[in-house]
Amino acid sequence: MAELESPSGILPPIPDDLTLVQFILDYQHSSRPVRNHEYDVPWIIEDRTGEAHGLEELRTRAFGLANGLNIMFNIKEDDVVLVFSPNHLDYLVAVWAIHRLGAVMSGANPSFTSDELVYQVQATHASVLVVHPDILPVARSAARVAKLSEDRIALFDTADTPSTQGVFPTVQGLINQGLSTFPSFHERCLNPGEGKTKVAFLNFSSGTTGRPKPIAIPHYAPITNIIQLAVHNRVNDDRIPWEDQRFRPGDVCGAVLPLYHIYGMLFNTHYMLFCGMTVVLTTARFNFLDFLDTIVKYRITHLLLVPPHVVMFCKHPAVSQYDFGHVRYVTCGAAPLSREVMNRVMEVFPNASAGQCYGTTESCTVITIFPVDKKRDTSGSGGQLLPGITARVERSDGTLADFDQPGELVVKTPSMSLGYAGNPEATRETWLRTGDEVKMNKCGEIFVLDRLKEMLKVRGFAVAPAELEGCILGHPDVEDTKQVSGHKIRVLGTK
């Protein structure tokens, strides 16, 4: 089998002189649908409170926060601002404010321990932390170890923020200051081609071995992946009847995926906003019964899930009490699902197009997704390549595998990251070795079989065995550890 090209269309011109915030808030691409009553329809809604922000309010808040952050912290071009928080109504506002300043955003897992956060602060050379108040003690401890002054911390606002934390500036306070003060910065227009090299995100990936590493993602990468998804799904294609269009203005997407992860940041939010949809953001700690209520309350039409969510939809007895007839689209990423599980998903969401997707942080999210002309995906398939992507399946000896034969998936995509931050050799690499064993059929569909690299999958997230060993060895009662493969262990509890 030779190298395979995507069967799903040709990419239109992709702007390479825009930042992501400019592309989403200020620019109308040819593949982007025009929202009806754009200024009246909410862009983002917080699920618990119903608080909503529209386009103009988001633009205003992003500018105000950018100005406030710059006044308070004197953020320079390419400085790194680390966001340590669960999903929050102002999370994307913070991302866009950081990008307005020409700075780089790095999202940290809100469940991190102090030691884990120290590692990310030091690996990214973060100069400012934007933190949720509930995990401020972890951030303060990490800042001390990383020798980052506490006066470089700002807090997201919550209804029950303790008064003792008033010594820290808040996002709302910075917005107010920024909007009441003369602009302290000039948002730079990128030169042609600069979007391909100017870093937008430092997201962490396990790579092939060892501790997670910062992946440098330029602005051009998420912009490209959004357009790839739009072309694949024939968004804004007036040749398709309105009722058959997969993504359209007025649809509502549930956003339960964490925004510190590229899957949640790009596909679950930025892409949906690009399509003219409203995003209902889950901000509290995930509770499945609350999530069921949210789907019905907001008449959510689109769901992006990971396997633990899907399993709950398949097995939780409460699901049978709900009518999900309004859900039109369901997809799952992060790990492959069996035929039996996908069949059950289709029973729960009888009117939905349902299938799987596959991607990596290094490729800036989606590589394959189920075809637009199928309401149900081919059982077990991760879908077809997005437009502009080339792939091959390599045997262990480096030769190309035939159709339906296993091998490592190797891809080339215009949405590729710059590689591992600080690693010039990785930056020069044009092909991505995914570390996943797959097979590909003659229809161009990818079937993920196994992990070739030494990685564990825990609730859809990659964990390096060495990282797990280090965590266990940190316990005072543990003298040594040994990796044992081949055993499946059920993860219990919620912590």
Automatic annotation (TrEMBL):
Molecular function (Gene Ontology), one example: CoA-ligase activity
Pfam families xref list: AMP-binding (PF00501)
Domain AMP-dependent synthetase/ligase: 53-420
Protein name: AMP-dependent synthetase/ligase domain-containing protein
Source organism (scientific name): Pisolithus tinctorius Marx 270
Organism classification: Eukaryota, Fungi, Dikarya, Basidiomycota, Agaricomycotina
